[in-house]
Amino acid sequence: MMKPRGARSTSQVKSLKIIDERITEMAKIDLTIHKDRLERAIERSRKQNIILPTFAQMKNPELIPAKIKDELRSIGLWDVHPRNLFRITWKNQPVNSGGQFGGVNYLELPSSLTGTKARIIALVGKWFPTGAHKVGAAYGCLVPRLVTGQFDPTTQKAVWPSTGNYCRGGAYDSALMGCESIAILPEGMSKERFEWLKGIASEIIATPGTESNVKEIFDKCWELRKSGQDLMIFNQFEEFGNYMWHYEITGHAMQEVLQKVMGPKDHYRGVALTTGSAGTIACGDFLKQQYPTSKIIASEALQCPTLLQNGFGAHRIEGIGDKHVPWIHNIKNTDMVVAIDDNSVVNIMRLFNEPEGHKYLAKKGVPGSIVSQLDLLGFSGIANVLSAIKFAKYYELEENDIVLTVFTDSMQLYGSRIEEMRLDYGEFHEADAAEVFARDLHGESTDHLLELTYESRKRIHNLKYYTWVEQQGRSYDEIQDQWYAPDYWPAIPNQVGEIDALITEFNEKVGLL
């Protein structure tokens, strides 16, 4: 009798039982205590005036002690001050200095701008320290190692490999803690990133290439490991602290926005995000727990269609690294892959930020209150919006359908790119604005899109093998666990309570509260 397609053999069933018995220990964040190093970390924090926020406080700043809130009244958002660790939240008051806390920072884009009936709503990342939410992902990777004593800030350098904002966030967190840091990012990233890092990071390493040259970053990490230096590498593409922070903090922030904006006839349909390190997209795993019929849309650059076509190439959507599938991307829970043309992103960047672009948008009926805030979208934010538009058009979403996304950072980090475009292509006129609006924004199509089946999900997941098992030393057993073990991904956010308890204990021993 022929075995049904998709049925597992006896040996496969036995393997699954073994996987279940292991309870997927490798998926969890290691919380082994190193007492000697922990004592040194506590003493360093006492000297540096450091108090660590818990995940509960980042999720709900009302839990932050009044003493800390009072201190923040005289501290700028980007100041290198340890109390700014408590501004690692989506709920900062949107001001540059002295801000307190309120609701989640978000912006709903009107149909006059997006060209789709669906309600597209984005969380705003500008109001984090460093101007990007990646400072939170970096903290999520660093804090478990710090409060367990695995990372010793008195002797070790913290290494932050990234395509931009994550290494900025990591260098910033390191500076607050008074430890040395090495920021690694491609040489083709915006000059604003490099100029800011010069005053924060202990060392900056510019690797060859641009956004999609991630392997060169990994190669530099291996070179540093072999150098004999005392360092710890916080690789965002494989650190589950990145996944955990976005599942717990970004996921809950999105849920709060939905609870605020949804009427009785509204439906949440899905979240659309460029993958980058695949940390932010973990919020979709949380949202699926709350809204089981919702979708997760993973987006990438058309010029580097790794998820879509096993492809490769260079592109200009800064902040989303490609040519590989990040270890922390839960592919089995992803519903759709879309690819965004980087030409559209660059052109829309000018439409959103040039005077003639603003005038044309107003002429097309986009409210002035929206036009004045379009600088909240950096390159990946624009790509995220285009991804949400593709998703909305594909499913023919209507006025009562809500799609979520994120503005990772703002044009504050890309001013030089506008000047470069003016030098290369000349001034931006009304005719240019009309062309970009019609072709790149309202003309966004459902081309270069794949609704994932079980088979196509597994095809993408299998791409992890070449990067992570063959090149980066991850195990064959664990890549199998990621696909087959039901407890693998839920085990990560389940550790939040334990980590918060360690943070609380750490703060008590530091003694500053």
Characterization of the model:
This protein is of the alpha/beta class. Helices cover 44% and strands 12% of the residues. The protein is built from 22 helices and eleven strands. The strands form two sheets. The protein has a seven-stranded mixed beta sheet with strand order 1-2-10-7-8-9-11, sandwiched between helices. A four-stranded parallel beta sheet has the order 5-4-3-6, sandwiched between helices. Helix 13 packs across helix 14 and helix 13 crosses helix 16 (379-394). The longest helix is centred in the middle third of the chain and has 22 residues, at 240-261. The chain starts with 9 loop residues before the first helix and ends with a helix. The model is unreliable at 1-27 (pLDDT under 50).
Q: How does the helix and strand content classify structurally?
A: alpha/beta
Query: What is the rounded distance between the termini?
Result: 70 Å
How many whole angstroms does the radius of gyration measure?
Answer: 22 Å
Largest sheet: 7 strands, mixed
Q: What is the number of strand segments?
A: 11
- Given as residue ranges, the uncertain stretches (5+ residues, pLDDT < 50) are 1-27
Morphology: globular
Beta-strand content estimate = 5-15%
Please tell me the overall pLDDT: 92
Number of helices: 22
Approximately how much helix is present in the residues? Answer: 40-55%
